Amino acid sequence: MQLKKVSFTILTAIVGLGALLAACTDKEGIKPGASSNSQSESNKFATKMKISMFNQGTFNAAAPIPPREEDIQRQMLEKAVNIDLDMMVPQAGQATTKLNTLIAGGDIPDLLFLKSRADLAQYYDQGVLADLTPYLDQFPELQKRFGKDSWDATSYLGKTIGVPGYDNVNGISRSFFIRNDWLKKLNMKVPTTPDELFEVMKAFTEKDPDGNGKNDTYGFIGGMNKEGNLQTYGFDSLMWMFGVNPPSAIEVKDNKPVFLFIDPKMKEALAYINKMMTAKVVDPDWVTMNTPDLLDQKLFKGKVGFMIRDARRLEPDYQQKMKEIGGEIPEWIVIPPMKGPYGDQIVERKSFQGNSWAISKKADKDKIIRILSMLEYLFTDKEAYPNFAYGIKGIHWDIVDGKIKNKTSELSKDMKEKYLWVDHYRMPRRGDDAEYFSFQNPKTTEAFTNNQQYVGPTLPGNLLTADPSDTLAADRTRFINESLVKFMSGKDPLTNWDNFLKTLDTKFDMQTYKDTAVKQFKEAGLIK
Fold first, then answer.
1. Would you say the pTM of this structure is higher than 0.90?
2. Which of 74, 140, 213, 403 has its CA 20 to 30 A from that of 251?
């Protein structure tokens, strides 16, 4: 996820390294040696070990790596497990080429950050990566740090071949925005069901909620990307009210895969959206909404009453854009998702844990244990957490009224640029940590926090890898997306639903895709 950058004001002059380290060891700060530095741990790490790290997981690949004497986080990692850490940060867009060059030359880094499960499986198949299964029981805190979904994503052929890289952020980008000022004017309540939502959208379209005497408002605006995919542009969120979603949404129920994009409930979801289209409550510009920026312009102009957008649109800089573009700051509020007819109440599904840490197969047992010890410290040490998640104590965060306070929003642009390199270490930040984002509007924090309860579990379909022998895969996906758009827009009547399913089977060999899913789900232990 791309993290939003905020402006800063200067705090204080930077003190020397000694003072910074002292600040990290005071009674309110962080102890670089980790809370687990008992005598037994000291003996365990008695011999210093060199560890090379290929870190493409950084949140800022352009930031230069600072010298060791200035790199507080690196010093903490090195002291915690007695290592000499050599970190390599590839430039954006060059990571795969750089890593493959290193592998081809036999110079495989000890610790590798990989961005996709496909890469993790591929490098394991090539004999590059170690099987971590025999070692993980020695690291219970690390195992507890990530949920089952995340660990499942690092499993392959019955083995655990990676450690989850970092939490994906959920519960913010798919927020349900509604014009509360329009609700008040029309004497309507916040909708809680699909039927109530439809009535609100209809009123927003027909009853002149902005009071300008013109027929220029709409109940909803969504879109689709340039490839014709409906995901992430709003319509998919409406489909979740019925418990379904476009490709590749696949669940496992009763020991069988359930393909949500062809489930009978998808027909109901499409009928609902088609009802919206027929009633003309959808802004007709939806067919051209193929980038997030275009949808933002609709939000800023304030002529649509309900949208699916990022909760950070409540932040001051976006509020200012609303004022500049629309002439006012509408009373947008973020509401819970509607509860559908089958009990589904979903903002979004938890993002798939594609990223991971892997360890070179060339590493011996002692090195594997040392690396896993470092990762356990990095991700689970509570005292060290703010140093890695937020930055440097006294600069990016401090103790305020007995609590940790992220102060990055107070830094100047110069200070921000001077310490861009802390982005190399932010991986331990939790995906639901509102303090990490340093929101300036309390309503953003409230929306982010409230949305967490409506984030559904990751779908098992994300575990599937492409079958190279399935030559119709791309055409099949394109046909599915195009058909869903035709059904919801009314270009193809839903009476043709059965013909759509038949065409999938006869022309696009849907059975091959189903067989692949069954095979891989069996290999993953999800079905018997």
1. no
2. 140
